Amino acid sequence: MHTPSTLSFDGARATVLDQTALPHRRDTVTLESLDAVARAIRGMQVRGAPLIGATAACGVAIALRHCADDAALAEALSVLAATRPTAVNLHWALDRLARLLGPLPTSERAAAAAREAQRIIDEDANTNRRIGAHGLALIRAIAASRPGPVRLMTHCNAGWLATCGHGTALAPVYAAREAGIPVEVWVSETRPRNQGLLTAWELDASEVPHTLIADNAAGLLLARGEVDLVVTGADRVAANGDSANKIGTYLKALAARDNAVPFYIASPSSTIDFGCPDGSAIPIEDRDGEELRAVTAPDASGRLQTVHLAPASTRTANPAFDVTPARLITGIITERGIASPGTLAELFPERP
Question: Is residue 332 a contact partner of residue 237, using CB atoms and an 8 Å limit?
Answer without folding.
Answer: yes
